[in-house]
């Protein structure tokens, strides 16, 4: 009992709080063989997007609060060890997006991307330089306004561009067919035309290059780390997408919608040398709102029998437009097909690729997982039984969506899905540290945790 009380206590410092090790998950989790998962911090304010700074402080967007920094508290400076939390930015308007580039901290709100002058050594932002908008006019309304961010590395090591995601206006948003709508897409903004002025002139949303559209909710995206045959002057990108809720679609029964459509992993290839003038479309259409991915063809063989003979992963039309049929959706000249499918209602929220650390350690992910992807599943709201609520491993290149191959496996998942959401983990942000461990934010449970290799396993 004394140990439990000590473990649950959070000691206060002058400008920080410390949580000792050993605090359990609010709700039990199950972990894949060879791995372990441990809570770093509890009782946070809806932790969402996460990113490491140059000093390996983990920066976390706490929705409704701002940005906080987490650093490992050495046992030499504290009798309890554990992790220290410091408030870096107080801004309740922040959404999910966060990226760090040297002394620049990029964060998103519903309507803009802001930059703070940041010092990793002190875990603080400038008190003399006000945060400034780098991109303005983002769609601030709609189903999702999380606006994930991804910096595009430049040749000098300093980011030369940024990718920004945008969700739909409504669950099934007909305007998303038009790339000029700014909905359900990813846009790219180049910095080199504004760096000579400080603070730089904001880049308007409608001037960004559309690198992909028709992706309902591009919740997270990342550059693959493996060997690529990408054409010169282009980048590859993988995007996790939340499928639409189709309960109200004509011809769809509740039983069918309970297990359809799939959530998807989308592949994007876009040019990095395109000249942008106005809204430039440099990417492909990915099908939303007209097309969806079949997860369970036999979810309701009586009420919706027409798909029973199709394989999982088939594209189907939601019949919103008579000209966009099943055949139209399957024609790759019209839409780019997903690379992999996730179970319906899993709600993927982020993706990261693993690069083994320069110096191996016993807790780092095994080097056999090099260049594989890891995806967070927030979890379902309207599926019975619940699904998701975990972090999955996706071997790369991704397997086909054949029924015989799922293409991913859980590293960590809520132990009792029938109790979710409740106090279950709802993973959102992912970040690999230089220690080769995977750090995860859990929004609804208010937790920050780490996945690491079990000390009883070795590299294969």
TrEMBL record:
<keyword id="KW-0732">Signal</keyword>
<dbReference type="InterPro" id="IPR011042">
    <property type="entry name" value="6-blade_b-propeller_TolB-like"/>
</dbReference>
<dbReference type="Pfam" id="PF22807">
    <property type="entry name" value="TrAA12"/>
</dbReference>
<feature type="domain" description="Pyrroloquinoline quinone-dependent pyranose dehydrogenase beta-propeller">
    <location>
        <begin position="30"/>
        <end position="453"/>
    </location>
</feature>
<feature type="signal peptide">
    <location>
        <begin position="1"/>
        <end position="16"/>
    </location>
</feature>
<dbReference type="InterPro" id="IPR054539">
    <property type="entry name" value="Beta-prop_PDH"/>
</dbReference>
<protein>
    <recommendedName>
        <fullName>Pyrroloquinoline quinone-dependent pyranose dehydrogenase beta-propeller domain-containing protein</fullName>
    </recommendedName>
</protein>
């Amino acid at each position: 009992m004394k140990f439990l009380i000590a473990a649950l206590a959070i000691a206060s410092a002058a400008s920080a709080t410390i949580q000792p090790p050993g605090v359990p998950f609010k709700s039990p989790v199950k972990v894949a063989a060879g791995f372990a998962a441990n809570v770093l911090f509890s009782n946070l304010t809806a932790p969402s997007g996460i990113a490491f700074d140059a000093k390996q402080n983990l920066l976390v967007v706490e929705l409704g609060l701002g940005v906080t920094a987490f650093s490992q508290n050495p046992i030499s400076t504290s009798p309890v060890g554990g992790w220290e939390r410091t408030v870096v930015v107080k801004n309740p308007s922040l959404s999910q997006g966060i990226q760090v580039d040297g002394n620049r901290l990029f964060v998103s709100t519903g309507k803009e991307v802001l930059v703070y002058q940041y010092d990793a050594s002190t875990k603080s932002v400038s008190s003399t330089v006000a945060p400034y908008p780098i991109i303005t006019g983002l769609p601030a309304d709609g189903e999702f306004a999380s606006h994930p961010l991804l910096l595009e590395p430049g040749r000098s090591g300093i980011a030369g561009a940024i990718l920004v995601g945008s969700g739909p206006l409504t669950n099934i948003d007909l305007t998303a067919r038009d790339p000029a709508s700014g909905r359900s897409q990813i846009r790219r903004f180049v910095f080199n035309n504004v760096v000579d002025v400080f603070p730089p002139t904001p880049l308007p949303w409608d001037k960004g290059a559309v690198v992909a559209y028709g992706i309902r909710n591009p919740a997270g995206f990342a550059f693959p780390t493996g060997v690529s045959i990408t054409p010169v002057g282009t980048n590859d990108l993988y995007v996790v997408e939340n499928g639409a809720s189709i309960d109200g679609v004509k011809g769809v029964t509740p039983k069918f919608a309970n297990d359809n459509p799939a959530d998807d992993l989308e592949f994007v290839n876009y040019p990095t040398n395109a000249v942008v003038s106005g809204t430039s479309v440099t990417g492909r259409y990915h099908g939303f709102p007209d097309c969806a991915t079949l997860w369970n063809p036999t979810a309701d063989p009586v009420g919706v029998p027409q798909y029973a003979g199709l394989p999982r992963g088939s594209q189907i039309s939601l019949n919103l437009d008579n000209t966009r049929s099943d055949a139209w959706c399957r024609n790759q000249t019209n839409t780019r097909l997903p690379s992999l499918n996730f179970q319906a209602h899993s709600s993927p929220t982020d993706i990261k690729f693993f690069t083994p650390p320069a110096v191996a350690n016993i807790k780092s992910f095994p080097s056999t997982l090099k260049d594989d992807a890891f995806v967070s599943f927030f979890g379902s709201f309207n599926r019975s039984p619940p699904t998701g609520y975990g972090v999955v491993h996706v071997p790369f290149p991704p397997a086909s969506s054949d029924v015989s191959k799922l293409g991913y496996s859980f590293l960590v998942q809520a132990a009792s899905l029938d109790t979710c959401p409740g106090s279950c983990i709802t993973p959102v942000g992912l970040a690999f540290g230089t220690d080769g461990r995977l750090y995860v934010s859990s929004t609804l449970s208010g937790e920050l945790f780490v996945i690491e290799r079990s000390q009883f396993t070795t590299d294969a």
